[in-house]
Amino acid sequence: MKLSIQEGMIPGNTLEEKFKLALRFGFEGIEFSGDKLREDKEKVKKIKKVASKSKVKPSTICSGFRGSLLSNKKEERELAVCDIKELLSIGQELGVVGLVLVPIFGGPKIPDLSPLYSTWELEKKMFIEQLYELGKHLKQVDQILLIEPLNRYETHFINRLEQAVEICKVADNPQIRIMADFFHMNIEERDVAESIEKAKDFICHVHLADSNRLLPGQGHTDFAGSFAALKRIGFKDYMALECGISGKKEEELPKCVKYLNTMLDVRC
Predict the structure, then answer these.
(1) pTM to 2 decimals?
(2) CA 59, CA 37: separation in Å to the nearest integer?
């Protein structure tokens, strides 16, 4: 397993500084925000140049598309699909694993058509049709679309790993997988380690945050047990920090890496 960190969490005024500090702190990858990459093509070139001279590599792109895949407006859905394709192409250029995707934030935007379809059933059908379309582009750019379940307070749609796995099975595309986020799992999963093991064939990326959404080790999440589950399923990909930092980054981030490595060393 490789540790990554979101760009905005790393101190430094330039990309060169951020890559150097990420390496010094003990990270192997950096996750970039999709909206900034989409808006600034020169940044993409800069990342490639800096990464080519560093042991730290771009790991993933996190969201950053406009519109909404599950909007009640066709133009919003089409905009989302268009932006996602663009971000996947950028991902190919940067050599990342793939794009983290949240289908929708908040409540539903389309009506309940019961008894024909409930809102959730209609959203599921719409989302899967979009995944079929995106799947063609995924093959062209050799990227993975990483569906992220969020907790019930941030979305009504896909809260648990098993729900994301169900979508992946219907989409039936090896380049459509899921991202497991420890903060959201801490809220939604009955047993985080068990949920990880049940989703073993579909987890291709992980987000790390403690129960209070601060750095791992600053809350009550059982990282040792959950990391043991990741080991048992043979997970070897990136785990990216996505959380707040209480204290000085230069002090807290190396401490966090040390803590995570200690948890990774705990045997099953």
Answers:
(1) 0.94
(2) 14
Amino acid at 28: E
The CA distance from 11 to 47, in Å, is: 16
Closest CA to 189 of 225, 217, 218, 216: 225
State the CB neighbour count (10 A cutoff) for residue 104: 21
Mean pLDDT value across residues 179-201: 97
Q: In terms of Cα–Cα distance, which of 163, 125, 132 is closest to 147?
A: 163
pLDDT tens digits, residue range 21-35?
999 999 999 999 999
Q: How far is CA 235 from the centre of its chain?
A: 15
**Inter-helix orientation angle 249-265/15-25, to 10°:** 40
Q: Domains (ranges, CATH) in the chain?
A: 2-265 (3.20.20.150)
Long-range CB contacts (within 8 A, 24+) of 50-53: 50/15, 50/16, 50/19, 51/19, 51/94, 51/95
What's residue 268's pLDDT? Answer: 44
With beta carbons less than 8 A apart as the criterion, state whether 69 and 127 touch.
Answer: yes
Nearest Cα residue to 121 out of 175, 163, 169: 163
Q: How far is CA 142 from the centre of its chain?
A: 17
DSSP state of 253: H
Distance CA 18, CA 50 (A): 10
Tell me the C-alpha distance between 72 and 66, whole Å. Answer: 15
